[in-house]
Specification:
alpha/beta; five-stranded mixed beta sheet; 12 helices; 5 strands; about 50% helix; about 10% strand; elongated
């Protein structure tokens, strides 16, 4: 059994790995993350490279390169301690590996370092991480529809995620939020999302509704993603909380934390008791987007 369990787990993960490999983002990221390893270890690429080894072997790491790689491993392990999903683990490995590769290439030859830096910039501008496209009961709002929907029925409780597609934290949280919507969505408890990277007016709307959607899109404030609970059309809770300096208090966006902090089990039971039975199906009653559609004629790919 000790041998069978890992084999079964590997076989179970094969379809997911195949889907990852079919997307250009992951293979290209892996290639950039291992670029220095390939250049240093694979003949004839390594032939003629400068080396500080005593034996002068250009196809093996010198002591400083080993030191940098060991430091990279320590940083990745520290960062992955707080990671929740596989995507977060892989994202940390890719990000810090690219930083280490840039340092190693610049140390080897400034021209190789500049070339690698240009490749990373081109990759960042042309190849985006794939968006979550799985099933969910989530309504996507624009800057014009969120106010109307929240005020339409004050009996409905809304949990709204304010996100941006460029944020890796938002992308990692997307499947978790989708899974929560499938488990807890009901006529009295709905889930919504607003792309504040696209609809910037939502996050800066402070005159008419001073404290309602105040979500900063700056990476320095670390407020993305932000979850806000609306009851009776008004905000009653948000995570992460904001300190006096306008920065987000550290909070882990795991499924367990969301269920516990927002009392989802209690909200779900109350919503089912208070809401009247409706004859409409889930798509009509909740305004939720099925797995292949999107309200207002938009798709995730468009967003």
């Amino acid at each position: 059994m000790a041998v069978l369990a890992p084999v079964l787990a590997l076989l179970y993960s094969v379809p997911g790995l195949c889907r990852w490999l079919a997307r250009p983002y992951y293979p290209l990221s892996a290639l950039l993350a291992t670029a220095f390893l390939l250049v240093r270890k694979v003949p004839p690429l390594c032939q003629g490279l400068p080396s500080q080894r005593e034996d002068g072997n250009p196809c093996d790491f010198d002591w400083r390169e080993v030191e940098i790689l060991m430091f990279l491993s320590a940083i990745v392990m520290m960062k992955n301690r707080r990671s929740i999903t596989v995507e977060q683990h892989i994202g940390n490995i890719f990000m810090f590996s690219k930083v280490a590769n840039a340092i190693l290439f610049f140390r080897l030859d400034i021209r190789m370092g500049l070339l690698y830096l240009i490749l990373c910039i081109v990759f960042l501008m042309t190849c985006k991480p794939p968006l979550y496209m799985g099933p969910e009961y989530i309504k996507y709002f624009s800057d014009k529809t969120i106010d109307e929907e929240l005020d339409r029925d004050k009996r409905v409780t809304w949990i709204v995620e304010f996100f941006a597609n460029w944020s890796s934290e938002c992308q990692s949280f997307a499947p978790i939020f989708a899974d929560l919507s499938l488990k807890y969505n009901c006529p009295g408890l709905h889930f919504g999302k607003v792309d504040v990277g696209r609809y910037t007016d939502v996050s800066t709307r402070s005159e008419s509704r001073p404290h309602r959607y105040k979500v900063s899109t700056s990476p320095l404030t670390k407020q993305l993603p932000t979850l806000i609970l609306f009851q009776g059309g008004t905000e009653t809770m948000r995570r992460p909380q904001i300190d006096k300096k306008g920065r987000a208090v550290s909070w882990t966006f795991s499924e367990e934390n969301v269920i516990r902090e927002f009392n989802l089990n209690e909200l779900y039971q109350k919503a089912k008791k208070q809401s009247k039975p409706r004859e409409e199906g889930p798509e009509e009653s909740t305004g939720a987007r099925p797995a292949t559609g999107h309200p207002e004629g938009e798709t995730k790919k468009d967003k």
